[in-house]
Amino acid sequence: MAAAAGASVANIYYNQPILKDIAAAFKTNETQVGAISVLAQSGYGLGLFFVIPLGDKVNRKRLILLLLLMLSATLIFMTFSKTIWAVWLASMAIGILSVSAQVILPMAATLDKVTTGKTVGSIFSGILVGILAARVFSGVIANHLGWRYVYGISAGLILLIVVLLQLYLPNVKSEFTGNYGKLLQSTLYQIKRFPVLRQAAAISFLLFGVFSSFWTTLTFHLSEAPFHYGADKIGMFGLVAIAGALLAPIFGKQADKGNAVRSLVTASSMIIVSLLMVHFFSDSLPAFIIATFLLDIGVSANNVTNIARIYSLDRTSHSRINTMYITICFIGAAMGTSTGLLCWKLGGWSLVTWSMTAWAVLALLIIVVSYFSKRQMIALAE
Predict the structure, then answer these.
(1) How far is CA 56 from CA 119, 169, 195, 316, 331, in A?
(2) Which fold has domain 1-174?
(3) Most CB within 10 Å of its CB: which of 61, 147, 280, 344?
(4) SS3 of 188, please?
(5) What is the pTM of this model?
(6) β strands within the chain, DSSP E
């Protein structure tokens, strides 16, 4: 399931290193080819809200298999696209259909009621590895075989995963019996229903914003003096990040033991330390390697811990709860990217790092204030 989730979500990010190759193939400009990334992200956003909730209403195994089969067909269409319009259409569809990863995640939590945090950590590690490895995979394949092979190989990989999931994925009964309109209404209601969901979403909104801002502006900083790195060397930082993401299940175990607040504080503190490192040692390669490792551990730990927390709220509403949480994370990531680009334009790397640090400190404050407010309420009740 972790491999399936990672392979699915990776399709949104394959386009980033190969946009220039696609532009050359269709003889188009940067603005037109840049729309590919925008459409893929927009499609994913639509899928998050309109598709994920179906996991609470229909058979999850069938939904996952259907999404992956349609994704594979769309990837084949992308491989043989003849016009930029066809590429745009395929990119939007790829974004929508890649949300199968977010159907798999709550399904995994339903299968394991004892060590939910550990299980969620494993699946989320797969997702994050897929996101981070996508750029490396895409760049290497495009460099040796051409950009179309990126999508052709992915289509074959997705078909292989469909076969494996058909053989090994269990059927899970869905609980929601209302119509689709009521399902979406119920999805919106979850954010009002659970204070823990609101807190978790707010924290992840900020930290995913930091994550997106960092990875967007890192390329700009490392391509300038004193580094002057090319795309291949910058891509290697993704491997450092993957190592950090693989540690996520450790924090999931802590959440299972009731140490969620400790994990969240630790995660946020690691992110703050990493950002201060790249601010004060902006010319140091070792500082960037260590900081990238710490930041990705922190983001992974935060997300795994929060997902373990929200999945304990109502096991019959996992997909709807996940929809609200991930949608808010996605909005945070988009705003983080926009803020990072604006700060880079106005003040370069220094302003970017201060902006990210402010977001991370605010997340830490939310965790601490919520914790002490809860303790005070318990004390008053006693």
Answers:
(1) 19, 17, 21, 7, 23
(2) Growth Hormone; Chain: A; (1.20.1250)
(3) 147
(4) helix
(5) 0.81
(6) none
Q: Quick one: which of 163, 160, 138, 133 has its CA closest to 148? A: 138
Instruction: Name the residue among 194, 110, 152 with its Cα closest to residue 11.
Output: 152
SS3 133: helix
Residue 192: partners with Cβ closer than 8 Å, 6 or more residues away: none
Cis peptide bond N-terminal to 226, omega within 30: yes
* pLDDT, averaged in runs of 10, over the chain (382 residues): 94 82 84 78 87 90 96 97 94 94 86 74 83 83 90 97 94 79 91 93 94 82 83 73 74 68 91 96 94 90 87 84 89 84 90 97 94 61 51
**175: three-class secondary structure by DSSP:** coil
Superfamily for the 175-382 domain: MFS general substrate transporter like domains (1.20.1250.20)
Per-residue confidence (pLDDT) for residue 235, from 0 to 100: 67
* Six token digits for residue 277: 């490192």
Instruction: Give the C-alpha distances (Å, rounded to integers) separating 173 from 57, 60, 170.
Output: 9, 8, 10
Residue 29: left (phi > 0), alpha (psi -120 to 50), or beta?
A: beta
Q: Are 207 and 268 in contact (CB under 8 A)?
A: yes
Residues 37, 158: contact at Cβ < 8 Å? no
**Fold agreement (1-174, 175-382):** yes
Contacts of 239 (CB under 8 A, 6+ apart): 132, 136
What pLDDT is recorded for position 120? 78
How far apart are alpha carbons 134 and 37 in whole angstroms?
13
DSSP characters for 59-109?
-HHHHHHHHHHHHHHHHHHHHT--SHHHHHHHHHHHHHHTTHHHHHHHHHH
Domain extents for the chain?
1-174, 175-382
3-state secondary structure 293-326: HHHHHHHHHHHHHHHHHHCCCCHHHHHHHHHHHH
